Amino acid sequence: MSDPNAYTMLITGLPRPEALFRAKRPPLSRLKLDRRLRVLEPEDAELLARVEQILTWSSLPIAMSDQQFVAKVRAEMKTITNETLRLIIRDRLELRTCMAALRRRNREQGPPSSASLWGYGRWLGHIRRNWQETSFRLDAVFPWLREADRLLRSGESLTLQRLLLDLVWKNLNRHAGEHEFDFEAVVIYVLKWDIVDRWVRHDSDLASERFDELTQAGLGDYADLFGRGLGR
User: Fold this and answer.
1) What are the residue boundaries of the structural domains of the chain, listed by start?
2) What is the pLDDT of residues 95-131, one digit of tens each?
3) Which end of the chain is more exposed for a tag (fewer CB within 10 A), N or C?
């Protein structure tokens, strides 16, 4: 069992990140963050690593297909019992799944087959059935989908990235309101650190090169599920 006092000291000792799009750098280096995280209990450190591996695209093998990724996530989720972490993972991957569908449709491709492992979450069948609707008839659940579709079609990639990262940031803040000095708060801090780091290091040319690598690796029509740096 984790020591609540140790985690309270860890959280209170971590520098607060600036507002996402105003930050010029992460609040501390990853090396220093990892040193602070040494106080985590071994089982908590292992769980944090698993969550980061699922949600951080740069940690995934370049040759991993979307099918392999979805299968891996489904297997991992069977062993993750922490409800807050399950919700964080689900919400992030549902966002990616919606974006993968938008990108596929933007390439004038039809919906995936019901048998394919193309995405994750509660809305796979619904998206397939409402493929031609701008927001897949999910406005009540994902009110940002219409704007994301417009930005994607108009090629406004940087604005789209800001939209998706802001959605992820706000979702983490909602969970943070229920966790101040516990293990979940540590995980949320690390995931927010990753978002800040991703934003300040953003380079559209590098992102394009990474996409080319993924495409050449044969990940198929749904390579977009990995996010290409968006909303991750």
Assistant:
1) 4-229
2) 999 999 999 999 999 999 988 889 999 999 999 999 9
3) N
